[in-house]
């Protein structure tokens, strides 16, 4: 008895519709493998049944082909020098820039960006952004990692280091500002709500962060205040 016959006799549960169906209901594919001069026939049985695959394909075609048509139209328009000039001119106008900045000022887009910043990926992005920012300003020490930032934030348990409110997401704040030669290291970073962060800007005096509520101790705080 070959493997092929075995497959045809058994049944399989389709992962899409969760129904146990005979193998004949699946679109089997036969693969020939040559090993030591002997050809073995393998039967590959997909995990979805024929009916489910057809349904999936229909949905795929609906999306893929409509996009394809649209992109073809774009290509045709781009090939036309007159239309291309018009599109480029529109792109370069202030009205386009104004429309874009209007969009970024809406609550919807702000909320969307905030949601992104709160994800794991967004946090990594912010850390990379701060590293870039401090590299540009030639900060001497630039060692803050995403892990350290998460630990700092966890230490404050959602409370702002300056005003203690806990109803806003915490943002990264450099205790001694980067602009004045502060370092981008764990001991110079604290968690603040955005209104505090905005108010603090690059002030060096009058802003002393509270101790974190968790176990983390900011023992190097005083060192970092005087670079
Ligand atoms: Zn199915
Ligand atoms: Zn605050």
Q: How would you summarize the topology of this molecule?
A:
Layout: H1 3-9, E1 11-13, E2 20-22, E3 29-35, E4 38-44, H2 50-79, H3 81-92, H4 94-105, H5 107-117, H6 120-136, H7 146-156, E5 170-174, E6 189-193, H8 194-200, H9 221-225
Antiparallel strand pairs: 1-2, 3-4, 5-6
Residues 160, 162-163, 165, 192-193, 195-196 line the site of one zinc ion (ZN).
Describe the 3D structure.
By secondary structure, the chain is of the alpha+beta class. The protein has helices at residues 3-9, 50-79, 81-92, 94-105, 107-117, 120-136, 146-156, 194-200, 221-225; strands at 11-13, 20-22, 29-35, 38-44, 170-174, 189-193. Helices cover 49% and strands 13% of the residues. A hairpin with a 6-residue loop joins strand 1 (11-13) and strand 2. The longest helix has 30 residues, at 50-79. The structure holds zinc ion (2 copies). Residues 14, 16-17, 19, 48-49, 51-52 line the site of one zinc ion.
Rg value: 29 Å
- Characterize the quaternary organization of these chains: single chain
CATH architecture of the largest domain: Orthogonal Bundle
Mean pLDDT: 80
Strand content is 5-15%
List cofactors, ions and other ligands.
Answer: zinc ion
Class inferred from helices and paired strands: alpha+beta
What characteristic shape results from the CA principal axes?
extended
CATH class of the largest domain: Mainly Alpha
Q: What is the straight-line distance between the termini?
A: 80 Å
Number of helices: 9
């Amino acid at each position: 008895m070959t493997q092929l016959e075995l497959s045809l006799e058994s049944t399989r549960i389709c992962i899409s519709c969760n129904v146990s169906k005979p193998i004949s209901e699946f679109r089997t594919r036969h693969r020939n493998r040559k090993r030591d001069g002997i050809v073995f026939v393998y039967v590959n049985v997909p995990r979805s049944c024929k009916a489910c695959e057809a349904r999936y394909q229909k949905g795929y075609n609906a999306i893929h082909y409509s996009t394809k048509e649209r992109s073809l139209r774009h290509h045709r328009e781009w090939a036309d020098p007159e239309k291309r000039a018009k599109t480029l001119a529109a792109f370069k106008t202030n009205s386009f820039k104004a429309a874009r900045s209007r969009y970024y000022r809406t609550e919807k887009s702000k909320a969307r960006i905030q949601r992104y910043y709160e994800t794991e990926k967004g946090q990594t992005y912010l850390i990379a952004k701060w590293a870039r920012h401090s590299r540009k300003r030639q900060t001497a020490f630039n060692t803050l990692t995403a892990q350290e930032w998460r630990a700092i934030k966890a230490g404050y348990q959602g409370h702002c280091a300056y005003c203690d409110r806990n109803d806003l997401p915490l943002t990264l704040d450099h205790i001694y500002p980067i602009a004045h030669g502060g370092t981008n290291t764990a001991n110079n970073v604290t968690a603040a709500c955005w209104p505090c962060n905005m108010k603090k800007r690059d002030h060096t005096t009058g802003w002393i962060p509270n101790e974190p509520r968790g176990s983390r101790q900011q023992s190097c705080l005083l060192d970092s205040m005087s670079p």
